[in-house]
Amino acid sequence: MFGLLGPNGAGKSTFMNLVAGLVEPTAGRILLDGVDVVADPRHMRERLGYLPQDFGFYPDQTGRAMLEFLLKLTGVTGPKGRRALADGLLERVNLTSAAKRKVGGYSGGMRQRSGLAQAIAGDPRVLIVDEPTAGLDPEERQRFYRLLSELSAGRVVLLSTYIVDDVATLCPRLAVLRAGEVVADTSPTAARRAVADADVLLLGEEHHVQAHHDFVVVLLPRLHERGFRSVLCEANHAYVWLLDEYVKGARDTLAEKQWNLGRDWIEAIRALNAGLRAGGRAGEQISVGCCDVNHWDDSYRESLAALAERYRSQPLAELVAQLPAPSDTAYVPAVAAIVDAAAGDPARLGLDAAGMSVVTATTRVELASARYRTSRSDAAREDVLHQNVTAATDRLAPGGKLAVVCGMSHAQLRPAWRMPSGRAWEWLGTRLAARYAATLGRLYSLACFAARGQHKPNFRSRERFDVDVQ
C-alpha cells in the first residue's frame, strides 16, 4: 500500500484520475506490468478498482440492491450470480446486517465500506482509494483501517489522503504532494518528524497605526472561531509568561514596559478569554507568546525576578541578584549558568515544569539577545524571530493554528521589497515559506501597509506604498 499525502488542492485526486484513465495526461507515461496504460487504457481498466472521493448513492435503495445495480453497470458477475456475489462482498466489508437497510440511513463509514465493496468486485490488481476516511469519526476510521489492510493483500493499493494518521497507520511508503509536485518520497516515521500540519497566519501590521490595531481586534474572534488558540507578538521575549498570565486572568496588571505594542488587541484577547471562562470553556482560551529578542537590557532580569516572586523561590532570586550588568563581559556566562544550574538540579530552584520551561526558553533567547544588543545585526534578530516561531509551531498539536502579529516587513512571503534604508536580510516570512513548501501546513500572510496617517519615518514614501491595506 502506497500513500499520497497532501493538503486539499495538492493534486492527489488529479493523479488518481490520471491513473484511472479518467483524465488524459498532457505529458509522461503511466506503466502497469510494463504496459503504457495511456496508450492502452483497457489494460488498466480491466485490473482496476476505484473508490473516488465523492461516491454517489441512491438513498432509497437498499445496500444489497445498490451494490447489485453497480455490479450490473460494470458487467461484473460471479459463478453463482450477482446476488450471491453482492452478498459475499457485503460480508467482506462487514455490511451483511445492513444489506436490507436503505443506503440513505447509512453512516459515513458504512457508505464508504459499501463503496469499497464495489471497488473490489472484480478482484482488481490495482485498488485506488481517494480520501476514504474524510469525515469519519475515530471509531469508523479505525474500522476502515482494518478493512483496507485486509483487502490490500495481493494487490497494489494507492491511498490518497490529507490525514497523516491514514498513511502512518497503513502505508510503509508515501509521497508528499504540494501544488502538483512530489516534495518528498519518504516513510511514515520520517514524515511524522518532517511534515508539519499546523497552519500559521502572519499578521503584518505597522506598529504605530491605530487602524491596524483596530483591524486585529476585529479579526481575533473570527480567528478563534476557526480554531486559532495561540498568538505570538513582536514583544520582548522575556515577558512571554507575564503576558500569557494577563490575558488568562491570572494577573491583573502589567508594567508599562511589559506591554506589547498592540495594547488594544491584547485587551481584546483578555476579554475574549474571560467570556470563555465564564461560559465553562476555559480550555479554549487563546494563549499569548512573544517571539522577539529582548531589546532592553533589563527585560530578562525583571522577568526572572518576577518568576522567583511568583514561585517564592529564594534560590532563583539569589541567582538573578548576582547577575552582572549586561554590559559586563561576565554577563553572558552568568546567564548561561542559570539554566545550567536549573538543569543540574531542578528541585533546587523550587519550580514546577511550567516554571522550568520559562527559565529555559527565556535564557535561550536572552543569550541570543545579548549578542544582538551588541551587534545590532538585523540578521541576528531575524534568526531569533524564526527560531521562536518555529518552536511555537512544533509545540502545536496536529492541525493546530498559530497567528503571529509582527511588523509588516517580517510578514512578506517573498522578498518583494526592501526597506528604504537599504537594509536587506532574510525575512521571517520568506524563511517560513521555504520551510512550509514541503509540509502539509499552510502559511498565510496579511500585511497592512501604512501609506498615510501616522506611521514610522522610514515609511513615508507615498510612491512606494500607495495603498492602505495590501
Could you list some keywords that capture this structure?
6-stranded mixed β-sheet, 43% helix, disordered C terminus, 470 residues, Rossmann fold, 2 domains
Compact summary:
By secondary structure, the chain is an alpha/beta fold. It has helices at residues 12-20, 41-45, 63-74, 82-92, 108-119, 138-151, 164-170, 188-194, 210-225, 240-247, 263-278, 299-311, 314-321, 331-344, 353-375, 378-395, 428-436; strands at residues 2-5, 31-32, 35-36, 48-51, 126-130, 156-161, 173-178, 181-186, 199-205, 230-236, 287-292, 401-407, 443-447.
Taken together, the total number of domains comes to 2
H/I helix tally: 17
Radius of gyration of CA atoms, rounded to a whole number: 29 Å
The general outline is elongated
Task: Kindly estimate the percentage of residues that lie in beta strands according to DSSP.
Answer: 5-15%
Neighbour order of strands in the largest sheet: 4-5-6-1-7-8
Could you report the average pLDDT, rounded to the nearest whole number?
A: 80
Which structural class should the secondary elements be placed in? alpha/beta
Largest sheet: 6 strands, mixed
* Helix fraction by DSSP (H/I, runs of at least 4): 40-55%
How far apart the termini lie comes to: 45 Å
Low-pLDDT segments: 420-424, 451-470
How are helices and strands ordered from N to C? EHEEHEHHHEHEHEEHEHEHHEHHHHHEHE
Topology, number of strands: 13
